[in-house]
Design a protein that fits this description.
Layout (H helix, E strand, L loop, with lengths): L13 E5 L3 H7 L4 H22 L3 E8 L7 H24 L2 E6 L10 H11 L5 E9 L1 H17 L10 H5 L12 E4 L18 E4 L9 H13 L8 H6 L1
Parallel strand pairs: 1-2, 1-5, 2-4, 3-4, 5-6
Helix pairs in contact: 1-2, 2-3, 3-4
Bound molecules: 3-methylbut-3-enyl trihydrogen diphosphate (IPE) (2 copies) and magnesium ion.
């Protein structure tokens, strides 16, 4: 399918994707898991480009979870190398396309040969205003919420915020995604139907879309399918249908 069936007025502002199934894709071909991760980079490229073209404001990709540190060291090392490769290869294209890169997660935990590259990517794309690409690395939703609570507590202790002033909006300013709209659509590939500690606060009202397509097979047409399904959903936000019709 192409994008002609899509309602261009109803494109999600923020799309979040749990890119899952690289290992199974490789296993199906009797290849090492890392080959699946490598092919998954092509899916990343295609989805980033498609989202930018559609006018999505924020795209958040779950690339490495806080829990993924428990994987075999070899696989972690290979993933870190791929990350470096991706950034080096894509930075020019990201800039050309006015995409701003933002890394979310416990970045301090990443290897020392990776961190400077991430800093540089954030710095060189900081002035871009076409789309924000959040790459979640060493990311956990609960960890993010605990970190936000600790940072907010710090602000209270320093007298910068009064306890009585704490609202959802104030709390959200202490998350990695401060200032960004919440995801409207959460996509997970590979058939798993869980959120695996991804953006727990932010997905409170996201539409969930699960597909059995493995991440390395995920292409533009699969994104369009997800968007078509999203556009058919009725987002009630607690209201009745009658209220929605009036609004
Ligand atoms: C997703 O693919 C990528 C990462 C979690 C880094 P997986 O590596 O989880 O692939 P499966 O789930 O084993 O197939
Ligand atoms: C979630 O995938 C994390 C990423 C896609 C980076 P996992 O494959 O690690 O999730 P679980 O362990 O199956 O829940
Ligand atoms: Mg997986």
């Amino acid at each position: 399918m192409d994008d002609r069936k899509l309602n261009k007025e109803k494109i999600p502002r923020h799309i979040a994707i749990i890119m899952d199934g690289n290992g199974r894709w490789a296993k199906n071909r009797a290849l090492p898991r890392i080959v699946g991760h490598r092919y998954g980079m092509e899916s990343v490229r295609e989805v980033v480009t498609a989202c930018r073209e559609l006018g999505v404001e924020v795209l958040t990709l779950y690339a490495f979870s806080a829990e993924n540190w428990k994987r075999p060291r070899r696989e972690i090392r290979a993933l870190m190398n791929l990350l470096k490769k991706y950034i080096r290869a894509e930075i020019d294209a990201l800039n050309r396309n006015q995409i701003r890169v933002h890394f979310i997660g416990d970045i301090d935990k990443l290897p020392d040969d990776v961190k400077p590259l991430l800093d540089e990517a954030e710095r060189t794309t900081a002035g871009n205003s076409g789309m924000i690409l959040n790459l979640a690395l060493s990311y956990g939703g609960r960890q993010e919420i605990v970190r936000a609570a600790a940072r907010l507590a710090e602000a209270v202790v320093r007298g910068k915020v009064a306890t009585s002033e704490i609202t959802e909006a104030v709390f959200a300013q202490y998350l990695y995604t401060a200032g960004q709209p919440d995801p409207d659509l959460l996509i997970r590939t590979s058939g798993e139907q869980r959120v695996s500690n991804f953006l727990l606060w932010q997905i409170g009202y996201a539409e969930l879309y699960f597909t059995s397509v493995l991440w390395p097979d995920f292409r533009r047409k699969h994104l369009y399918q997800a968007l078509l399904e999203y556009q058919k959903r009725k987002r009630r936000f607690g209201l009745t249908d009658e209220q929605l019709r009036e609004a």
